[in-house]
Amino acid sequence: MSPIRAPLLLRVQVKANIYKLSVASQTCQRVMSVERIFDEFGHFKRFQACLYFAAVFQAIACGIHYLASVFLVERPNFVCAPPGNITDVLYGNHTGASLEEVLPFFKPANGPMVVRTTVGQQWELSTCQRTQRMNPTDFTYEQVVNRTTEKCDWNYHYVYDHSEVYQSIVTDWDLVCDREWLAKLCQPTFMMGVLVGALVFGDIADRVGRRRILMITSLCQFVFGVSVAFMGNYYLFMVIRFLLAMVSSGYLVVVFVYVTEFTGNKVRTWTSMHVHAAFAAGVMMVAITGYLVRTWWIYQIILSTCTSPFLFFCWKFPETPFYLMAKGRLQETQVLLDSIARFNGLEPGRLRAEDLLEPNEALLEKEVVPGRAQLVEPERKLSILDLFGTWRMTWRTVTVWAVWFIGSLGYYVFSLGSVNLGGNQYINLFLAGAVEFPSYLIGCYAMDRVGRKRTCAPALLLAGTACMLIIVVPNDIEVLVIILSMTGKFAIAIAFGLIYLYTCELYPTIIRSLAVGSGSMMCRVGSIVAPFCVYLADIWQYLPQLIVGILAFIIGALTLLLPETLGEPLTSTMEEAEALGRKSSPDQGKKDPEEGVEMN
């Protein structure tokens, strides 16, 4: 190596290393530097639009798999199977020659079915037990005779009503009575996988890149999704579903980062919020497919393959410029910049990757000495405890976590519970997905007009009001109950959608990722609790709405105490973040544009 070339390579290497350190601490100066890409090439032009809609298309699969269990574990009417063949069936005013003829009308609360077998035995059949009439005189519904009762378990088998649900995992594996809890574990176990996936893939994406994780998780979504349909065993089914949850969560977490790093701050609010819209489209597809296909394994295959075209072009995705710059891969960054320029109809080479390092030049000159590279001393490593550094920040963190929790809890309680509202369960679930589209449009508009706090707090209060009104509405007015439930879902979706961006703006650069990550953890806790909350309807029909309503009211009121961040630049230090919302002079708090990025 020539003596002239050696210092040059050393300088380049040091430049890359120092840049990695500066990215690790996420200084505002670095953000402004890379944001120049969007000032030069456009915040959301042809290149970014194509990437955005392609990446968001696969997010539909996440919405599908998150809610698919609604019909996978659907439980039709059933009774304990009688011994022998049946000749006659009585149930109230209904008669028939087989159980299948009468089962559509069966309601356990109204009494058992009475059947007569070919050998003359008479049995009273309930869901989890069967009773034999001893020495009956005639075949009538009501009869005073001695009886012997035996508990029905999975060894006796059950007879199911196939008029609405031809085949589900409940009917295949008799997940009723003493085994009913196995069916109820399906959704909470999936949400546990979502939690693990968010932790695992979020960290890996920072190490190996966003592009690779998008490719791996989308491929695994297809493989695991189809594999679920061929599991002939409940426990294998649960294991594969857990893995499917991990990769679905991994894709959803990384795609938020991916689209954010390819879009400028002028459209970032809209692009980040409308990833949720793709998720809502997946919920609607679950409703449509569930209505058209009543066999669970066919239903699962169709849902898992509907976004498979994404696999044919996801390998063409580029890595994000933020990640490439963070890793010091300047040559690859330059290739990407030229590609963006050409695709957007601009001249290649108008922006050089080295130009994005200019804010650090003074630092480089100061840190490099002949023959030796001296890296900047790394900053103190922050922990989750720093979110509670002062009473003011403690209160803010608790409130933000509560919004994350109720947003997720309410979202899944309204979604999963929509099939129990009465009326057509498929239409209800479809509406639960469709109502999210106007919520994100209105939410985005309100966030940029009246502010983050003044959008989030009223949305939570509206959701709480809808829950309370559902409780007082008479059961026979199903249409009004459905309208109120959709209103609650509309409101909670607004709060759930904006909390991502609001959290970013409430915390300084040095701890922003940790704040969003910890909030996301509370979100996953809410999604795990939600299925159990829905199951509380077995105790009292309106208990889920009561819980969500009370929490939404309390947390909505607490949100009013948070500072407003609309129009405020992103803070860099804990002191600046803590000062948000405090009364100050008009000039105080204003920053030079080079010191902060406003996300409009």
From TrEMBL:
Domain Major facilitator superfamily (MFS) profile per the UniProt entry, residue ranges: 139-567
Q: Which residues cross the membrane?
A: 49-68, 213-232, 238-259, 271-291, 297-315, 393-414, 426-443, 455-473, 479-502, 514-537, 543-562
Q: Where in the cell is it found?
A: Membrane
Q: Where is this region: Disordered?
A: 573-600
Q: Which residues form a coiled coil?
A: none
Q: How does it sit in the membrane?
A: Multi-pass membrane protein
- The name on file for this protein is Solute carrier family 22 member 16
- Gene that specifies this protein: SLC22A16
